[in-house]
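>> Question from a student workshop board

For tomorrow's exercise we were told to take the sequence and the ligand below, predict the bound structure, and bring the output to class. My setup keeps failing. Could a helper post the expected result so I can at least see what it should look like? The ligand is flavin-adenine dinucleotide.
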Amino acid sequence: MTARICIVGAGPVGVVAAIACARKGLRVTLLESERATDHSPRAATTHPSTLEMLAELGLFEEFRSVGLVARHFQFWDGVTRTLIAEFDHDVLRDETPFPFVVQTEQHKLCEIALRRLSEMPEVEVRLGVNVVGLEQEAGIVRVITGDGEGGSFEYVVGCDGGRSTVRRCMAIDFEGYTWPERFLVLTSLFDFRTALGCCERSYISDPAEWTNLFKVMGDDLKGRWRAVYPARENESDEEAFSEAAVRRRLQKLHPDHPMELVVHRNIYRVHQRVARCFRKGRVFLAGDAAHVNNPVGGLGLNCGIHDAMELAETLHLVTAGREEVLDRYERRRRPLNIEYVQQQTVANKKRLEERDPKVREAHFDELRRTAADPALHRRFLMRTSLIESVRKAREIP
Ligand SMILES: Cc1cc2nc3c(=O)[nH]c(=O)nc-3n(C[C@H](O)[C@H](O)[C@H](O)COP(=O)(O)OP(=O)(O)OC[C@H]3O[C@@H](n4cnc5c(N)ncnc54)[C@H](O)[C@@H]3O)c2cc1C
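>> Workshop helper replied:
Here is what the output should look like for this input. Compare the format with yours to find the bug.
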């Protein structure tokens, strides 16, 4: 009899883990507390390394068809409104079949994957089921759900997000810190590319208030832009969402931005945290349940999808009798998250918000030098696209 795996949470990491496990012949039950996918604006940037994984699962074409291909990204000085550097993923064309990022909203990945899962007979998806507890006994994990109909499984994977119940049930510390300022996301139909001459993924450094500006297609595929800003430390939701504050922020980007083109406002807390361990007995953590970070650089979900793929391979080997690889998941995934996601996103945020004029100039010079030198340009993108981290993971025994 094949092993039974319970995946908790049908966010983007849980659905990818479910497909990856099912394709390896594991019997999967996916439990999700909500009845419908969350459409709030979150991850969109999907890097080449992750696109390779989506292609392996047969998801890439549909995923790309509802998003946009972004070959370049840019750094701007918001004070002088000048372009500092542009990076071109095409320099990676000998390294990956996908030398670009795809910007597709994460809820679309969930919905595509849930449709695929509904066609897989070995997978059971149960929506509206809240996991409230876990009990590990010899050889099994009992999953306790709000509806009293949990069940017993050989392995459980917590893909239940930053506030993970699975992590809490396992009493695993979530080490790190929370940034004092929240991040505000304003979604607009204004065409920033035409107005500013920027590309679909632009980072604007400004000591007074940085902006992360990028385009997604929206559900109507007509295109819309998200502008992400740091809120002031004591700024309330009402203040941040007020007409005056929204107008001030958007018109700082472009003075002609019309208010009627603003279609969504959202504000959220940002953390840098990593679970002390990624496995306890037969229970694993993946995605935001295992690590959270600020979104500058678009790395969190990408890293979560990499966790999901590693975990499917681990469970496949373990259930085939290779118990010795159980620990490899944490050995591979935890240090790489710290090195490639935590450190990089903190550095990305610092670069955008730097106040010291000399340090800002030094950052700009370094970006210009990196973009201008083909070898440095390629090395920079190998790192930011997480291709380097995937290759490094394979070398960890
Ligand atoms: C504004 C913003 C922009 C971002 N941009 C990017 C980006 O461009 N690129 C990138 O890589 N990352 C980005 N991120 C991060 C990304 O959104 C997260 O890393 C991603 O959502 C993690 O997916 P997940 O499946 O691990 O968790 P989640 O998306 O949080 O999903 C967890 C799921 O578990 C369910 N659940 C929770 N508790 C239970 C329970 N007890 N029982 C059953 N189900 C449960 C929830 O309902 C949910 O469906 C961004 C984040 C934000 C906030």
